[in-house]
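Slide 14.
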Amino acid sequence: MLSGASKPPNFVILLTDDQRFDTIRALGNREVSTPDMDRLAARGVTFTQACTQGGLTGAICMPSRAQIMTGRNVFQVHRGIVDRQNAPDPALVTFPEHLRKNGYTTFHTGKWHNGPALFQRSFSSGSNIFLGGMSDQLKVLVHDYDPSGEYAKEHARTGEKFSSELFADAAIGFLREHDKSRPFVLDVAFTSPHDPRMAPKPFSEMYSPGQVSLPRNFLPQHPFDNGELKVRDELLAPFPRTEAEIRRHIAAYYAMVSEVDAQIGRVLDALEQSREAGSTYVIFAGDNGLAVGQHGLLGKQNLYDHSLRVPLVITGPGIRKGEHNASLCHLMDIAPTVCDLAGYPLASVTDGLSLAQAAKSGKMLERDAVISAYRDAQRALRTREWKLIVYSVGGVETAQLFNLKDDPLEMRNLAAAPEHAGRVREMRRDLAQRLQKAGDTAAWVAG
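Slide 15: predicted structure.
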């Protein structure tokens, strides 16, 4: 329960769906309009190298969101949550669950993709709850909070507004009506800018396909079989990709980013009007990135930076303002960060690291590398300067080595260069050791 004379801080978590790290104007993309994400970047610390670890399923958001909630690695959350939707492992404690036990009101609105059982453990209230993966943005099936935890399908209703507005309305309602004597966690999980990309006016009219830039690493098709070229996301455009088609997708993507930005702005305004902004930490993040034409791909079922890296901004009491921190960090760092800032450390965290001191002091995290995985076909190791991606498809192994300092768009594969043979061997060995420690069971990885 609550201890001490003063009330612990509040938390507002703002999560977008499929938003790539480079889709914010304040972070350098001059083609997209994001005044409210810019507002957050100006008020806090942006972790510019934040990433997800991928996933062992095509629906990357399931393990990604489980990692955010628990601070556990991708293999642990698959075994304990993603593959056990009806009976999640009680040892994988979520940060809302932990803070709820320590006196917090925990409220959720929007997308929840890890089953009703874990939801009910985590949240004491909620509204406009979407217990699903994808939906028409204008016909989202949502639930009211069900104290029984059953969330029967026949009790769901169709939201009467665009998804982002629907979820922002619920968040604003909570900020206006919650018990001011108790600290809170407000978890707002938008479904934008995930497809179907059908942004309403005026956002759909903001971007013309003929005026958006084609990515420099655009390819008509991926240069080899990565093990997942025909997954649903990749079938949203015909093969080979054309420049005109990709420009159309990018324009629609940016429109969705601007649309959800406006709804984030409404939530921020309501927080300020509640007079609790000074005692509230706001954490904004995306659950995974998206290719949208880069490397001949459209989706996030790959281990290139465009699909792994996400926006991550932290604002609040004592947090530095308008700064960038290039620490290698994960979405699974959010859970220990929130609990650290709340004053109730989450003992069950095994892989995530708290970003609290980095956000307050400007220091770098002591993490020298990150690993990632996609299904059984792809594995990667990323350091501050290098990335090695290895593939095993139909018994054939392929390697890619990129110098991220000189080649951030991952366009020049150096894996076959004789001068890098030693680096490839060393990184391959390091990757295998880290994956084994994390609990990877893909047999070819150790080979």
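Speaker note: DSSP finds eleven helices and 17 strands in the chain.
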